[in-house]
Amino acid sequence: MNYASKTKLIPGDMLKLRIMEDGKLVYKLIAPAQRKYVKAKLSKTEEGKFIALTEEGKTYSLNQAAVTFFKGNVGNEMSIIVNAGEEHASAAIEALIDK
Questions:
Q1: Rounded Cα gap, residues 70 and 73, in angstroms
Q2: Is 41 in contact with 52 (CB distance < 8 Å)?
Q3: Each residue of 13-35: pLDDT tens digit?
């Protein structure tokens, strides 16, 4: 989850996995998906999961570790990254927007 947060992974990104001799897993982004940047507001589901709501009314699930990393609060405006070529239900956080 932390690698996904730092790398801002989105659905469609291609990763390479190396398994080290000691069993450690090392991921590397080798082919990023085509990206589109969208404004959204941070919200929560009834189950307490953070989501992004766009001005067009679309909802995207977010990496919960990324919300914590960015110190997000419900109502924050943010820029999210979505796959530009295909519709998916998940997005990555690019940044919180200060007012």
A1: 9
A2: yes
A3: 999 999 999 999 999 999 999 99
Which alpha helices (DSSP H) does 13-96 contain, by range?
A: 64-69
Query: Which CATH number fits the domain that encloses residue 36?
Result: 2.40.50.500
Q: How many domains does the chain have?
A: 1
Query: Shortest CA distance to 27 belongs to which of 39, 40, 15?
Result: 15
SS3 call for 2? helix
Contact indicator for 65, 1 with CB cutoff of 8 Å = yes
Query: Is 0.85 surpassed by the pTM of this model?
Result: yes
Q: Which two tokens stand for residue 56?
A: 């067009």
Determine the structural domain holding residue 61 and report its residue range: 2-96
